[in-house]
């Protein structure tokens, strides 16, 4: 898991005069020396997951307590063969989704309430807001798969 991604821009820098439709954004996580790892599926990354934070709502700022809600897209990319081995040909994305939901349900979440909003399977929905057009078509064809799980997380955090 790569955790929370940043929305980075490729090629044009931050030129505000470039038309919005021509700007190329991609999801990335910071590495050392001010470099970023682009999180589009490829054979070098293997199976991975990251969280794409869409919105944050602050509900209350009390004495040493911050209460808020986050809308998060959990993006998963995987190779069925890595996960299921010889059974990979009979398994589907629904099997992987079930395993993800089971893991979320069975984990002990302290100070968090998680609401499942739904899954998205189409590449344009998985990478909504990013320039995914350069993705190789085989990146999201068997034996590879991907989906986005949209969740809402409510949290209470102590502020010191």
Give a structural overview.
- The chain is mostly beta strands.
- The chain has a single domain (44-158), classed as STM4215-like (2-Layer Sandwich).
- The chain is built from 3 helices and 7 strands; from the N terminus they run βββββααβαβ.
- It has helices spanning 80-84, 93-106, 123-126; strands spanning 6-10, 24-30, 36-38, 48-62, 65-79, 112-120, 144-158.
- The strands form 2 sheets. A 4-stranded antiparallel beta sheet has the order 4-5-7-6. Strands 1-2-3 form a 3-stranded antiparallel beta sheet, with no helix packed on it.
- A hairpin with a 5-residue loop joins strand 2 and strand 3.
- The chain is globular and about 55 Å long.
Question: How are the elements arranged and paired?
Answer:
Layout: E1 6-10, E2 24-30, E3 36-38, E4 48-62, E5 65-79, H1 80-84, H2 93-106, E6 112-120, H3 123-126, E7 144-158
Antiparallel strand pairs: 1-2, 2-3, 4-5, 5-7, 6-7
Q: What is the number of helices?
A: 3
Most strands sheet: 4 strands, antiparallel
User: How is the CATH topology named?
Assistant: STM4215-like
Output the radius of gyration: 18 Å
Number of strands: 7
User: Uncertain segments of ≥5 residues (pLDDT<50)?
Assistant: none
How far from one another are the termini? 28 Å
Alpha-beta classification: mainly beta
Strand content: 35-45%
Helix content: 10-25%
Shape: globular
What are the salient characteristics of this protein?
four-stranded antiparallel β-sheet, 160 residues, mainly beta, 3 helices, STM4215-like, three-stranded antiparallel β-sheet
């Amino acid at each position: 898991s790569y955790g929370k991604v940043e929305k980075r821009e490729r090629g044009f820098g931050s030129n505000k005069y470039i038309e919005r439709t021509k700007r190329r954004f991609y999801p990335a996580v910071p590495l050392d020396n001010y470099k970023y790892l682009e999180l589009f599926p490829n054979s070098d990354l293997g199976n991975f997951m990251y969280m794409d934070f869409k919105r944050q709502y602050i509900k209350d700022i009390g004495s040493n307590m911050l209460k808020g809600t986050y809308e998060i897209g959990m993006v998963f990319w995987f190779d069925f063969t890595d996960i299921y081995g010889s059974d990979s040909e009979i398994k589907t994305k629904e099997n992987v989704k079930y395993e993800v939901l089971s893991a979320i349900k069975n984990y002990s979440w302290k100070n968090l309430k998680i609401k499942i909003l739904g899954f998205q399977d189409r590449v344009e929905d998985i990478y909504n807001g990013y320039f995914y057009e350069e993705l190789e078509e085989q990146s999201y064809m068997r034996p590879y798969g991907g989906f986005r799980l949209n969740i809402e997380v409510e949290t209470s955090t102590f502020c010191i």
